[in-house]
From TrEMBL:
Species this chain originates from: Devosia epidermidihirudinis
Pfam families: Phosphorylase
CDD domains cross-referenced by the UniProt entry: GT35_Glycogen_Phosphorylase
Enzyme class: transferase
Official protein name in the record: Alpha-1,4 glucan phosphorylase
Length: 825
C-alpha cells in the first residue's frame, strides 16, 4: 500500500492566547464539552482533567512544529531506549516550561479552584523505580530544552512499580493504579502497531539469486501499540515524544473456546499478551518470572527498532545512512537484545550482508552502563533464549564468533581473556552476558561518573577495554534544574532571581553568582527562611501521613533512595541507635536535635532490604516514644517514595546522606538534587560524590570512610570485621541491642542473622566504616551549631551545582556520542 506523502509545510493553527481570560474560558469549555461536567457539580478530578487539556492544547502546536522541523531539515534523531521513565507529574512541569503557571493559577482562582490542589491530585506515572528511570526523564526534558530531536522509548506499564504501604512496619506491595482513570497526556497511535514474535523455529530460505538467508517463524505473536506523550523543553524550545508500548493480543478472544464453555481459556491469549506490560520488574526468582522479564525487554526493543527503521526508510529510502541519521542509546542492559534484533532486521528482513549490517549496527548504538554489580549486569540462560528467541541466539553466537576471532588473532588474547570477553558465560550454567553484547555492538560505552568509568575499565569490562580501547568514555549524570530547583523550590528560585537576576534560569552555571553572597548575613537569613518554610511543609506532611510530630528547628537528616545493602541504610539506622544510647546515657550534653528521614522501596524478593525497612520502623517506634530522648531524636520512614514525595522532601533537607560503600554507586542523582536545594552532603568518595567534592570544595561537604581501593584491599585480604566491632564500644552496644531484640520484643531473633552478617563478612563495610561515619556525624553537629558556617556551606552547595545539570550531560552526549548539534547555553 503506497505511503501517504508527508506535507512539511501544512498550515498551522494560530497559537492560542495565554491570557487569564482565554485560559479560563478554555478550561470551562473543556470541562463542559470534553469532561462532560457542569461547573456547578464538577469535582476536583474534573477540574484537573479540564486544566490538563487546556495546558496540553498549548503544548500541541509546539509538538507538531517540532516534528515538522525535524522532517524539513532531515536532522539526525536520537532514540533513548529505557525500561524506566520516572517522569512524575506532568502538568506543573509543562506549565512551568511554557510559562503558564501564573495565568493558569489566576484563571482557576477566578473559578474558585486552587491550582495547588489540582497539582497534588495528578497521579505519578508509575513507569520507573529509582535513579535510572528518573535520569531518563531528566534526559528527555533536557533533550527538548537544548533542541535535540529525540524520542524516548519504553513500556506503558499498567501498574508499573508497586505501591508501597506499611503493615506493622513491614513493606507491603500493592498494585499501583495510576492509569485507572485514564491518562490525559497520552495519545494512542493505532497506526504505529507492530507484530512481535516469540518462540517458533528458524528455517533457511534460498533467494532467487541463490543466496541463503535465515527466516524466523515465531509461533507466538502479539501487537505492540504506541502511546505518545509530549515532553516539553524549557521555554517551549522543543517538544519531543515519549513513546510507550502497550502489549495487545492479535485475537482478543478465542470465540471457539468461549462458545464451547471455556470462558476463562478463551481469554488466555489476552492475559498472556497483557501480562508483558502489566508490571515493571516482575520478580525473576522463578523461571516464569525470568521469561516474562525477557519477554518485556524484547517486546519493547523490537517494537522500538521496527518503528525507528520504518521511520528512517520512510524519510530516506535506504538503510546505508542509518548511523548518519539515527543514534540509539541503550540505557543499561535492559534493551541490549536490541543489538541482535537490529542485526536480524538488517540481515533477514532487508537483505544486507552481515559485515555491512554489523558496521551499521555499531555506528548506530551507544550503551550507558549504570552498574558494576554482577547481579545487575543482566545475563540470560542460553536455553531460555534458544527457546524464546531462536534466531537471536543464532545471531549472538555469530557475533561472539567474530569477536573471539578478533580477540585471538589481532589482540593475541589468552584463554582466560577470551573467556572474559565472550558473550557466553560458560561458568555455572551457560548464560548470555547482555553487558558484553551491548558493549561489542556499540561504538560508545559510557559510565555515569568519573570514578565509575575508571572502575569499568579496571573491572567488569577490563579485557573488552583492552580489545576496544577507544570505546569507553565518561558522561557524568545530571538533573534537570527546572524540576529539581525551579519547580520544587519556587521560593528559593525567587530569592536567587531577586539576588543575582533571572539569567541563571537559562544558564544554570550562572548560579555561581551566589558565591559572592554566601557570607552575607542578610542573604543567609533569607536563605534559611526559605529552608524553614520548606521544612514546615514537610513536617505537616509527616504529621498527616504518619501522625508523628517533628520540629522544623531540628536538623532534617535525609536518606531517600532505593533500599539496598550497598546504599547502607543499615549503617544510618545503626548510627541512630548508637546516638539514641548516647542521648540517654548523657542527658547533660547539648545535643543537636535531629530528625532522621528515610524513604525508598525494596525489591519484592530482596529479603534483607525488606528487613532493613522493618528495622527502621521498629527503631522509630521505640525512639519516637521514649520520653528520655526528649524529642532530640526522631526517626521517620515515609512510605511509597516517588517523584512527588521527593519534590517535598528534597527542598526541606538539611543533610543529604550519600553513604554507599565506595566503588558500588555508579553515580547517584539524588545527591545532586539535594545539593541544588542547599543541603550539605555527608558521604563516601563514591560515584558522583567525587565530582561534587571537586565542584563544591572540601570545606563544603563532609566526606568519610574507606576509599574504593581500601574496600577492595579488605575484601581481598579476607580480614574479619569482628575486630572492628570489638574496637568500637558504641557500635558493639548498638549491634547487641538490635540483635538481642530490644527493638523487636515480639520477635527477639528477628535481626539476629542480619546483624550476624556484619560479624561474619560485612561485604558492604558497614561495621568497618561505622566509627568514621559517627565521627563525621559529630562534625556535622559541630557545623550545625555554627549557623553562619552552616548557611554559607549550604549556599555554596546551591551556587556550585551548575555542572550537575542534565543539560550539560546531554550536550556532551550530543557532541561525543550521538553526533548531533545541541543549542548553546
Amino acid at each position: 500500500m503506497p505511503q501517504t506523502p508527508i506535507v512539511y509545510d501544512a498550515p498551522t493553527p494560530e497559537p492560542r492566547a495565554s491570557t487569564v481570560e482565554a485560559i479560563q474560558a478554555e478550561i470551562l469549555e473543556r470541562l463542559i464539552y470534553s469532561v462532560g461536567k457542569d461547573p456547578i457539580v464538577a469535582r476536583p478530578h474534573d477540574w484537573l482533567a479540564a486544566t490538563i487539556m487546556a495546558v496540553r492544547d498549548r503544548v500541541m502546536d509546539r509538538w507538531m512544529e517540532s516534528s515538522r522541523e525535524t522532517w524539513r531539515t532531515s536532522h539526525k534523531r536520537v532514540y533513548y531506549l529505557s525500561l524506566e521513565f520516572l517522569i512524575g507529574r506532568l502538568m506543573r512541569d509543562a506549565m512551568s516550561n511554557v510559562g503558564l503557571i501564573e495565568p493558569v493559577r489566576d484563571a482557576l482562582k477566578n473559578l474558585n479552584v486552587d491550582l495547588g490542589d489540582l497539582i497534588n491530585l495528578e497521579p505519578d506515572a508509575a513507569l520507573g523505580n529509582g535513579g535510572l528511570g528518573r535520569l531518563a526523564a531528566c534526559f528527555l526534558e533536557s533533550m527538548s530544552s537544548v533542541k535535540i530531536p529525540a524520542y524516548g522509548y519504553g513500556i506503558r506499564y499498567v501498574h508499573g512499580l508497586f505501591r508501597q504501604e506499611m503493615s506493622e512496619g513491614w513493606q507491603v506491595e500493592l498494585p499501583e493504579d495510576w492509569l485507572a482513570h485514564g491518562n490525559p497526556w497520552e495519545f494512542e497511535r493505532r497506526e504505529s502497531a507492530y507484530e512481535i514474535g516469540f518462540g517458533g523455529h528458524v528455517e533457511p530460505v534460498t533467494d532467487p539469486d541463490g543466496e541463503v538467508r535465515q527466516e524466523w517463524r515465531p509461533n507466538d505473536h502479539l501487537l505492540a501499540v504506541a502511546y505518545d506523550t509530549p515532553i516539553v523543553g524549557w521555554r517551549g524550545a522543543r517538544v519531543n515524544t515519549l513513546r510507550l508500548w502497550s502489549a495487545q493480543p492479535i485475537d482478543p478472544i478465542l470465540l471457539d473456546k468461549f462458545n464451547s464453555g471455556d470462558h476463562i481459556g478463551a481469554l488466555a491469549e489476552s492475559a498472556r499478551a497483557e501480562a508483558i506490560t502489566r508490571v515493571l520488574y516482575p520478580a525473576d526468582s522463578t523461571a516464569a518470572g525470568q521469561e516474562l522479564r525477557l519477554r518485556q525487554e524484547f517486546f519493547f526493543s523490537s517494537a522500538s527498532l521496527q518503528d525507528i527503521v520504518r521511520r528512517h526508510l520512510q524519510q530516506y529510502g535506504d538503510l546505508g545512512s542509518l548511523p548518519d541519521k539515527v543514534a540509539i542509546q541503550l540505557n543499561d542492559t535492559h534493551p541490549a537484545i536490541s543489538i541482535a534484533e537490529l542485526m536480524r532486521i538488517l540481515v533477514d528482513d532487508n537483505g544486507l550482508k552481515w559485515a555491512e549490517a554489523w558496521k551499521l549496527c555499531k555506528g548506530t548504538f551507544g550503551y550507558t552502563n549504570h552498574t558494576l554489580l554482577p547481579e545487575a549486569l543482566e545475563s540470560w540462560p542460553v536455553a531460555l533464549l534458544e527457546r524464546l528467541l531462536p534466531r537471536h541466539m543464532q545471531i549472538i553466537y555469530q557475533i561472539n564468533a567474530d569477536v573471539l576471532a578478533e580477540a585471538r588473532q589481532r589482540a593475541k588474547f589468552t584463554d582466560s581473556q577470551i573467556a572474559n570477553v565472550s558473550l557466553i558465560d560458560e561458568a555455572g550454567g551457560r548464560r548470555v552476558r547482555m553487558g558484553q553484547l551491548a558493549f561489542v555492538g556499540s561504538h560508545s560505552i559510557n559510565g555515569v561518573s568519573a570514578l565509575h568509568t575508571e572502575l569499568m575499565k579496571q573491572t567488569v569490562f577490563s579485557d573488552l577495554h583492552k580489545l576496544y580501547p577507544d570505546r569507553i568514555n565518561n558522561k557524568t549524570n545530571g538533573i534537570t534544574p527546572r524540576r529539581w530547583l525551579m519547580q520544587c523550590n519556587p521560593d528559593l528560585t525567587k530569592l536567587i532571581t531577586d539576588t543575582i537576576g533571572p539569567e541563571f534560569l537559562d544558564d544554570i552555571e550562572l548560579l555561581r553568582g551566589l558565591d559572592a553572597h554566601a557570607e552575607d548575613p542578610t542573604f543567609q537569613g533569607q536563605f534559611a527562611q526559605v529552608k524553614r518554610a520548606n521544612k514546615e511543609k514537610l513536617a505537616r506532611l509527616i504529621k498527616d501521613r504518619l501522625n508523628i510530630v517533628v520540629s522544623p528547628d531540628a536538623m532534617f537528616d535525609v536518606q531517600i533512595k532505593r533500599i539496598h545493602e550497598y546504599k547502607r541504610q543499615l549503617l544510618n539506622i545503626i548510627q541512630a541507635v548508637a546516638l539514641y544510647d548516647e542521648i540517654r546515657a548523657h542527658p547533660e550534653r547539648d545535643w543537636v536535635p535531629r530528625v532522621k528521614i528515610f524513604a525508598g522501596k525494596a525489591a519484592p524478593g530482596y529479603w534483607n532490604a525488606k528487613l532493613i525497612i522493618k528495622l527502621i520502623n521498629d527503631v522509630a517506634k521505640v525512639i519516637n516514644n521514649d520520653p528520655a530522648v526528649r524529642g532530640l531524636l526522631k526517626v521517620v520512614f515515609l512510605p511509597n517514595y516517588n517523584v512527588s514525595l521527593a519534590e517535598v522532601i528534597v527542598p526541606a533537607a538539611d543533610l543529604s546522606e550519600q553513604i554507599s560503600t565506595a566503588g558500588m554507586e555508579a553515580s547517584g542523582t539524588g545527591n545532586m538534587k539535594f545539593m541544588a536545594n542547599g543541603a550539605i552532603t555527608i558521604g563516601t568518595m563514591d560515584g558522583a560524590n567525587v565530582e561534587m567534592h571537586k565542584e563544591v570544595g572540601a570545606d563544603n561537604i563532609v566526606i568519610f570512610g574507606l576509599t574504593t581501593e581500601e574496600v577492595n584491599e579488605k575484601r581481598a585480604q579476607g580480614e574479619t570485621p569482628r575486630s572492628a566491632i570489638e574496637a568500637s564500644p558504641r557500635l558493639k552496644e548498638a549491634l547487641e541491642s538490635i540483635s538481642s531484640g530490644v527493638f523487636s520484643p515480639d520477635d527477639p531473633d528477628r535481626y539476629r542473622d542480619l546483624i550476624g552478617g556484619l560479624y561474619d563478612h560485612d561485604w558492604f563495610m558497614v561495621a568497618r566504616d561505622f566509627d568514621a561515619y559517627a565521627t563525621a556525624q559529630a562534625e556535622v553537629d559541630a557545623i550545625w551549631t555554627d549557623k553562619a558556617r552552616w548557611n554559607a556551606m549550604a549556599i555554596r552547595n546551591t551556587a556550585r551545582v551548575g555542572f550537575f545539570s542534565s543539560d550539560r550531560t546531554i550536550r556532551q552526549y550530543a557532541q561525543d556520542i550521538w553526533g548531533v548539534p545541541a543549542a548553546a547555553e
